[in-house]
Structures are given as C-alpha cells and as structure tokens.
Amino acid sequence: MTRFALTVEFDGRPFMGWQRQDHGPSVQQAIEEAAFAVTGERVAVHAAGRTDAGVHGLGMRAHLDIAKPIAAFRLMEALNAQVRPNPVAILECVEMPEDWHARFSCLARHYEYRIVNRRAPLTWEKGLAWRIAADLDAEAMHDAAQLLVGRHDFTTFRSVHCQSESPLKSLDRLDVVRAGDRIAVYASARSFLHHQVRSMVGCLGLVGQGKWTAGDLRDALEARDRSRLGLNAPPDGLFFVRADYP
Amino acid sequence: MTRFALTVEFDGRPFMGWQRQDHGPSVQQAIEEAAFAVTGERVAVHAAGRTDAGVHGLGMRAHLDIAKPIAAFRLMEALNAQVRPNPVAILECVEMPEDWHARFSCLARHYEYRIVNRRAPLTWEKGLAWRIAADLDAEAMHDAAQLLVGRHDFTTFRSVHCQSESPLKSLDRLDVVRAGDRIAVYASARSFLHHQVRSMVGCLGLVGQGKWTAGDLRDALEARDRSRLGLNAPPDGLFFVRADYP
Known about the structure:
The structure is a homodimer. By secondary structure, chain A is α+β, with helices and mostly antiparallel strands. Chain A folds into two domains: about 1-95, Pseudouridine synthase I, catalytic domain, N-terminal subdomain (Alpha-Beta Plaits, 2-Layer Sandwich), CATH 3.30.70; about 110-245, Pseudouridine synthase I, catalytic domain, C-terminal subdomain (Alpha-Beta Plaits), CATH 3.30.70. The first copy, chain A, is about 25% helix and about 30% strand. The first copy, chain A, has helices spanning about 25-40, 70-85, 140-145, 195-210, 215-225; strands at about 1-10, 45, 55-65, 90-95, 110-115, 130, 150-155, 170-180, 180-190, 240-245. In chain A, helix 3 runs parallel beside helix 5. The longest helix of chain A is centred in the first third of the chain and has 13 residues, at about 25-40. The interface between A and B is medium-sized, with 23 and 23 residues. Chains A, B: Homodimer.
C-alpha cells in the first residue's frame, strides 16, 4: 500500500458537500469513483475538512491508499481524466509515509469567505460569493472580528448538527479586507466547528450593516447559545483555501 | 427622451455574444427585453464593444433612450429585477446628454485575458479562463507583446469576418503579468479589430511555450496575412473590463 496526499480544487455548487451522502453527489464520492476507475480498488478518501453543500475548495488536502504500483504524477493525471465531468481537479499528488493523515495530522486550516458588496445581482460569480446590497463598513467588521480571535466557547457559532466533542476552539485569525466592492474574510484555526466560519461571517455582516455593534457580537459569543446567532452566511462565498502539516 | 448610460457586467457563457442574433440569446436582447418589461418601450441598446460568444463583461458601457419619465436609480433597479434569470447585471445607470454615445464617444477600451497555467483542469473557473497545461514563460510573453504595441496593420490578428474599414489600429498597452499559476494579459486601445485580443493572446501563448520566438511574432505581424496567425485563443478567458469617455 502506498499513501498519496492530494491537493484538491472543487466547485461546491453541484455537490451535497465533501462527505459521501446517500441522497446526492459528493466530492469524496467523485474522487473515490475516479480512483476505482484508475486502479480497480475501492478506496476511502480522507480530507482535512468536511465542507458543507455549496462550499468550494481551492486547496483541500486529502489522502488515499493504493495497492497497485503507480507513480504519483501518473495517478494525478489519471484521476483528473477519470473525475470528469465533475468540477473537481487534483492539483498535486505526492507519496506520503503511512502515518500521515489528511485530517489527524493537520495543524491548521485556512478559509476565505468572499462577499460582493453591491446592489446589482451576481453574474459569473453566482454561487461563488455572498452578495450584500447594503453598504458594509469593513473596518467595523474587522475590528469586531478581533473579539472572536483567541480561545473561546463557540457554542453560539456552532451548528446543532456539529459532532465535535467540545465547543472550545482557538481562532488564530479573522481578518476582514475590502478591495473595491469585494470584501474577503480570512479565517484560520487548528480546527473549526460545523458552520463556525459561516456563522461568524453572518454576524460580521450584521456588524458591517450597523445592525449589530461589536458589543452585540461579544454578547452573542459570551451567551454560548445557538439561538443568539444573528445570521448564518450562505455557503456560496466560502472557500477552503489551505491546510498546514508538520 | 432621456439617454441613460449603463455599466454592465455579464457572464458570456450562455450568450451568442453581445449583439442580437437570430439563432440564440444575446446580452443586448436580454437588456432590451428587460427595458421593454420596465417601460413598455421597444428600445435599442448600444454598447462600447460587441463581444463574441463566450466573452464576459466586467464593466461594459452601453446606452438606451427612454421616453417614460424614470429616475436613473429606479431604472437600474427595475432592469436588474427584469433581466433575471439572465446572468446580466446593471452596475451603474446615469443620465447622459443626448449626444453621448456608448460606442462613438468611447476613447479607449480595456480588456483582460485570464490564463490559468497548470496541468489540472478548471473547476469553478470553467469557461472563465484559458487553461494552458505547458509551462509558460510570462516574461518572454510580456517582452514579445511589446512588439505589438503602437500603430500597426493588424491584418494577421483580425477575423475574416471583421467589419472594420481599416486594419490599422493603435495598441496602447499589452502587458502580461503572472501571479502564481495565473497569467493576466491587459490590452488597451481606442478600438480593436474583431478577434484582435484573442488572436494576440493566442500567439503570445505560443511564445510562452517556446513554440514561437519574439521574432516569429514580429514576422507574423509584418506578414499582414491572416493565414500566418499562430492560434486564436478561446473566448473563455476574455473580459471586457472598462471603457473610457471624455
């Protein structure tokens, strides 16, 4: 058996999410079926993060074990050929030691959330960004975001379906950057709770519109109560950017 | 009659191009039908440039004349509501003097051509960029591109269907800029011939792959012969970015 690490880009729009589902297509299934077509082996593909339906990947990391002797580069080319027409691309494929695990070895995960701040609807970015019509104060969003950085109980920002053992997480970075009518939110942590990034971005959107103060955001965090969440942002604007390993 | 100038963004993928066609949908038709739904008037929409099938718009300029009294902001909002589900958005709408013409008053047109330089296929950018698998030398492309800047007979870089009276054009800018695996080509001129940007980018792609030297590009230009064109780049990566007016 050889373990291969994959760097995967995908368009989340047609998928029910990363993880295999009974009721619809998933990125995991698309790659596992491509691997079967290439090797004849039924493999399991493990990822650094299990993204929701409609969430995209720029540099998701994953691994799979293959018995058949095959070079990493040839495996990458064959997976890319077989995964069509799914909007999934293997950007990199490298051999790894057997104890390297895309999920458990991961030291940090980086997300980007893309907002388009304008009245007009989206065209070629439809499904790839969250359009907010009301003028957003990105500086106020960035300042408020710093209240969430650090080690906190993120119960308010956690889906009721979250399977994590603890709501305690350390958020390393939450930066809000405007460029013209584009606002990007950069979030980094060792790991995130289910819906955490979307929940934080949703509340920052309220801050940006002046509907919430920074104090409202702090109160929501300290309440540790999901019913105090202001807004869960849509999956459209969320991109899994990168995972870091030792 | 009031003349309104529009700034239009559109996703070129579902359209036969900007201009109205008998055999398929066009951006012009989508906006004209939205204007009819809003005002009950059969109007003609004139644009700064007539883009090809599959070419996108970030900031196309256009104008239309409306008899019914309506404020510019309300017209914009109503057009955006009525143009759905077409991937067309009116970003700005302003009143203009009657002698302002989106096409004839235009002093400069700016295009961007987006290349993704990697082996893996495109996912969420499919139809929004030209993927070139072979390693490109962007510096060599930029250096060669400077041979095309200035006033030249661009017959080699002109579609046989071009309706321009003269093949003489002044190219003001042709810059090639790499950022990671993204290469952008920025082209600016008072006006372009039909297929000129795609034809120039196609040949620069050959230079980037080392299949053509800068000398080959100069020879192709000086030949003034369409059959000497190396390659016409696909429409996917081409975006009409901006038009300038007095």
